[in-house]
Amino acid sequence: MSISAFRKKKLLYVFNVFFDINNSGEIDKKDFEIAIQKICDLRGWPAGSPKNTETHEVMFKIWEGLRSKADKDNDGQVSVEEWCNMWDSYAKDPSNALEWQQRYMNFMFDLEDASNDGAIDASEFAIVCSSYGLDKAECEDAFGKMSQGATEVTREQFAVLWQEFWQSDDPAAPGNFIFGKTNF
User: Fold this and answer.
1) What are phi and psi of 79, to 5 degrees?
2) Where are the beta strands (DSSP E) in the chain?
3) What does the pLDDT read at residue 91?
4) How far apart (Å, rounded) are the C-alpha atoms in residues 182 and 56?
């Protein structure tokens, strides 16, 4: 089994928008450092604050998990090919959950749930997604498709949508919109 053209488009979108922050063509620790700064600035978490420290710790654990699973040539970077190969392996055995992916999912949910009420609404979702350079109106549309018209998405619902994003070949699957894009 190999990755379908549709899934590859989704994977490359996430690679380029949410991981390769410095647009170097590869994911490395520097991308995570930039993302951490962006996240902390977005949320107003100053250096040394508990949330800033937690963000650093969680994001670097995500980086180490990703690097250990995908960086097959051990050069400290994850290439597009390594990224796609990792997801192809995952697709062959979805029961082999990637620990870093689970950590990243929880981190994204917590980041988007700015009100800390256990659910994400369209505004919270759009603020985070648009901070990565996406059009805010498209992010709001994506939320409507992802939530299937509901006003909020709980962590449990988010987890199902998250898995659907990574595994589905169905262009209409609600999980496809979890990263703020309405078409691929």
Assistant:
1) -80, 170
2) 26-28, 77-79, 119-121, 152-154
3) 67
4) 30
